[in-house]
Amino acid sequence: MRWTPNRVVALYLGLALFFLGVLGLFAVPTLQEGSWTFYKLDLIMDLVHVVTGAIGILAVFTNWSRLYNRICGIFYILLGILGLIPIMYFNGHKLLGVTHANLALNLSHVALGLAALVFGFFITMYGVWTTSARTAL
User: Is the pLDDT of residue 133 over 70?
Assistant: First the structure.
């Protein structure tokens, strides 16, 4: 298999998410809010990072890296934007009532999502920038 820009980005995102999630599991192994560096993390968010990272690593070696970048980009953009809306925090100031989040984590999710979206939709197999998502298919 050829190492396209989408495969490289999916590999880096997958590895980064997986290992940061695993490190977070050791730093905050409970559902209680914890602080790892400047992020507010808990078990749920760590598991989300581990699962999406593992799927990314799997996608690289099964030729689904472009689809992974698209889905991961949409998921993390939505997660980051929902985290920026104050009304989405309820049940003890948890994002969607499930997990803890703060501004740094939400902005990181938006940046990760944007990078994945750009590569998933606008960078072709050979690394050429396309002007529309339709021609990138």
Answer: no
